[in-house]
Amino acid sequence: MLRRLITMLAMPAAGAFGAVDFAKDIQPVLELHCLKCHSGAKPKGGLDLSTRAAAVKGGESGKPSLIAGKPGQSPIYSTTLLPANDDAVMPPAKETPLAAAQKAALLRWIEEGAPWPDKLVLVPVKRVDFVKDVQPILEFNCVACHREGYDKGGLRLDDRVLAFKGGESGKPGVTPGNPAASTLSTSTDVPADHELLMPPKAKNGPLPKGDIATLRDWVQQGAHWPEGLALKARKKEEAAPDEEKIVATIHKLIEAAHQPVAAGAMKPYEQKVPGTLVSFEMVPIVGGKFQMGSPAGEKGRAESEGPQRAVEISPYWMGKHEVTWDEYHKFMYSEKRQGLAAGSTEFYLDAVSTPTKPYVNMDFGMGTGRHPAISMTHHAANKYCEWLSSKTGQFYRLPTEAEWEYACRAGTTTPYSWGGDASKMDDFAWHRNNSFDSLTFEDRYRKVGTKKPNPWGLHDMHGNVAEWCLDQFAPYQTARGILKDPWVKSAKPYPHVARGGSFHRAIAIDHLRSAARLASHPDWKMQDPQLPKSIWYLTDAQFVGLRVVRPLALPSAAEMKACWNSGTEKDIP
Predict the structure, then answer these.
(1) For residue 365, with 0-12 CB atoms within 10 Å meaning exposed, 13-18 middle and 19 or more buried, which class applies?
(2) How far is CA 21 from CA 49, 108, 323, 356, in A?
(3) Closest by alpha carbon to 104, among 41, 178, 42?
(4) How many angstroms separate the Cα of 377 from the Cα of each of 131, 388, 470, 491, 511?
(5) Is 400 left (phi over 0), alpha (psi -120 to 50) or beta?
(6) C-alpha distances in Å from residue 395, one per residue of 16, 56, 273, 523
(7) In the chain, is it the N or the C terminus that has fewer CB atoms within a 10 Å radius of its CB?
(8) Rounded distance, CA 517 to CA 305, Å?
(9) What does each C-alpha distance from 477 to 103, 296, 303, 474 come to in angstroms?
């Protein structure tokens, strides 16, 4: 009865608003707040909200979640009105609650019969992060004119309460859940010659389309702004390079040089890095199918390695061994050329982000040259691939976790690529039991390629240093059918996947198995003296490096950008 009363009291008068637009008002709410738990093969509580039919059907309770015309009897709406400490409140208390405008839209939508386009299947979307996605846009473009002591039009955008309140126009600056009623969103999304454009043309307006979409999505998603976080104006020159233009330029370079090759005609090759004396070797990996993960009875198996699932991998080339210091130092100490014409091809090719100068010796005295490069962050590894692509005119990236295991196994199904006999490990791998240096009295990595290769000609897939993969570390899910080129895209700074085990005493022998997985952790930067901590270096992960791949199929510019820019480089919760 209490829940029914809460629902009734929260209902505004019917017909007080215009018709609800499903795509604009309802779909974003469901895709952001609901589908993370209520879609896919195993939706929580058996409730799938990705289609109208499934929502109407309901979950394990046997009751419908959506009843057209009856919002009070539709849990998809009524559970959003419960107190925050109620176990049944949706979204759960740990998630961001719906804004009043979003609840009102749900109410009116159900009252209007809950129209939902035929055959439309919803998919989960990533939440816009205020600190990472919105704060830079405001600080670089808006706060200089809308801050304490200089609030043009009476609008302040450096303070959450005042930004939401709005300025002299009397209209709210931000109305959570309603971009159309938010000055911040409407004034940025107008034609370039519009008198209300913000920022104006004289202040480098309009914003890039991606930034306009980010602001709109942020407002639509409820406009979460951390309590107590005040913004500060930043100079435009402090902004990050224009990644869209950088990637478009690199893609154009690669596309011009691309020569299609049939999978059966792939051959090993040596890649030189122009302007240097450095080269590296790439080995062809013929696509195919395999069982990813380890069987339940495998010795040393971790729970995160299962359940096994069938995976199909497209053809690619892979580095014959890990990236060496000879190669990585060219990236670390790359100097930007002076005098390049702004906006030119050379200007953007030279604008790829490169590391800040390290504050300690990043090989930690273990040796450079042909030794594997180590201690770079996941972000740094991605940026190395982008830089390498800009220099060579070939597309390079980190391997997906599936590609890595497929190449490591090299057609085998045993714990190691040489079989199941761990006593042969010394022939193929540097590990904690054979990497002791009698001169330094410490374990250390060794030069690449000094151990036997696996059956496909790849060295050091087991041991020496662990290797970054593109993927966020996530539990395996039971899959129906065969997964085609799976990739768990990044959504947060930690954990990401590293594979292959290592020489390091902190890495167990079991981690050298083909299916073993290693998850990155904030402790890998524990001794970093900087605040904020570096986005480039790992002071406490002297056991992790990288290896590159080059897919046979040429990806789009958008796909390249996604591979090189995880968007999770900052150590924020």
Answers:
(1) exposed
(2) 18, 10, 51, 47
(3) 178
(4) 20, 16, 12, 16, 20
(5) beta
(6) 55, 46, 13, 32
(7) N
(8) 7
(9) 32, 15, 12, 9
Helix (H) or strand (E) holding 244: helix 243-257
Phi, psi of 404 (to 5 degrees): -65, -50
HSE, CB side, 13 Å, CA atoms: give it for residue 282.
Answer: 23
pLDDT (tens, 9 = 90+) of the chain, 573 residues, equals 333 333 333 333 333 345 888 888 898 888 888 888 898 778 888 999 989 998 999 988 888 999 999 999 999 999 999 998 888 888 887 777 888 888 999 999 999 999 999 888 988 888 888 988 899 999 888 988 898 888 888 899 999 999 999 888 888 999 988 898 999 999 999 888 888 888 888 777 899 888 998 999 899 888 889 888 999 887 654 456 789 999 999 999 999 999 999 999 999 999 999 999 999 999 999 999 999 999 999 999 999 999 999 999 999 999 999 999 999 999 999 988 878 888 899 999 999 999 988 878 899 999 999 999 999 999 999 999 999 999 999 999 999 999 999 999 999 999 999 999 999 999 999 999 999 888 878 899 999 999 999 999 999 999 999 999 999 999 998 888 999 999 999 999 999 999 999 999 989 999 999 999 999 999 999 887 666 688 999 999 999 999 999 999 999 999 999 999 998 998 864
Identify the burial level of 460 via C-beta atoms within 10 angstroms of its C-beta, where 0-12 means exposed, 13-18 middle and 19 or more buried.
buried
Distance CA 15, CA 105 (A): 12
Q: How far apart are CA 56 and CA 70, in angstroms?
A: 12
Q: At 431, list the tokens.
A: 């590990």
Distances (CA, A) of 504 to 126, 441, 509: 36, 13, 10
Cis peptide before 226 (omega within 30 of 0): no
Give the domains, in start order, of the chain with CATH numbers.
Answer: 2-111 (no CATH), 130-238 (no CATH), 244-564 (3.90.1580.10)
> What token pair was written down for 279?
């080269």
Q: How far apart are CA 540 and CA 363, in angstroms?
A: 12
